[in-house]
Amino acid sequence: MAQGTRVATSAQTPLAQNLVLSARGRSLLKRLEGIRLRPYDDQTGVAITQWVAGATIGVGHLIDQSEWSRFSSGISQQEAETLLAHDVAPYEREIRKVVTRSLSQSEFDALVIFAFNIGRRAFSGSSVVRLLNNPKASTGYPSLESAWKAWNKSQGKVMQGLNNRRAAEWKLFDKGVYQ
Hints:
mainly alpha, Lysozyme, 8 helices, hydrolase, bacteriolytic enzyme
């Protein structure tokens, strides 16, 4: 079987129309993102007491400046869970919209986790999506795996944390291993 192609099985659903992030996928996303109940700067990880671009709380929730007063003094664990459910839903919908092939639950979970990290617009226009939908698509990457793992930079610098995250996401996508 060619790299990046899969034979439909009973574990897959046509075009992922009914899939949502599983409990195991949510757990992995929380491990990869971390859970912070006080605001912090996403780029530096440093706790903050006033809004900055990149202000984050919970499980990777970017705080809009208009939301600062709501989140400035922190949130509870339950509020972090509620925010995560709200924040993940648009990524689930985006994957169901742009991916045109069947996906297993673990593949869908990996894509949600990946897209959540890189952003919906970046995901939708990525070589990853093009290669998912057409393994023979012309991209600058020899395989879906290499296109996926190329998302390893922050502010132009290769980050070991992103290398590790991409490896975990790919292991989930390719092997169905939630680690």
